[in-house]
TrEMBL record:
Gene Ontology annotations for the cellular component aspect, listed alphabetically: membrane
Protein name: DoxX family protein
InterPro entries: DoxX (IPR032808)
Keyword tags: Membrane, Transmembrane, Transmembrane helix
Length: 139
């Protein structure tokens, strides 16, 4: 990526580490908390809830690390954006829960939407050359 201002490449690296690192941590949390997350996924109507928890954990962990390292950034950012929007709607349906759960679900919904926006921002620059990256990608 051709950065116009001094320090922009370093700032983008920090942004990638923060963004991808948080998502990777969230993914690892799916593995360590699967027993608590699977009943929630089941209550939301997901088929094979335990497999869904592990699958989504794997997607978050791998894609997050890939964003940090600059590996297949188009695939990683696209997968993250798709997952985050889908899970916001499917899992955090604040409009359909009892009043005592509305605020928690709204917070989680908005978190996923905001993170999806971050993934789309990464996707917007994913086809360019990233300074401080492994440099493995489709384009």
């Amino acid at each position: 990526m051709a950065f116009e201002t001094a320090g922009a490449a370093e700032l983008f690296l920090v942004a990638r580490v923060l963004f991808g690192g948080v998502l990777a941590f969230m993914g690892l949390n799916h593995f360590s908390s699967a027993e608590q997350l699977a009943p929630y996924a089941e209550a939301k109507g997901l088929p094979a809830p335990t497999a869904a928890v592990y699958g989504s954990g794997g997607l978050l962990a791998v894609s997050g690390v890939f964003v940090v390292l600059g590996i297949y950034p188009v695939v990683a950012a696209g997968a993250l954006a798709t997952f985050l929007v889908g899970s916001a709607v499917a899992m955090h349906d604040f409009w359909a829960v009892p009043d005592d759960q509305t605020q928690d679900e709204l917070t989680q919904f908005l978190k996923n939407v905001a993170l999806a926006g971050g993934a789309l921002a990464v996707l917007a620059v994913a086809g360019t050359s990233w300074t401080y990256s492994v440099g493995i990608g489709l384009v």
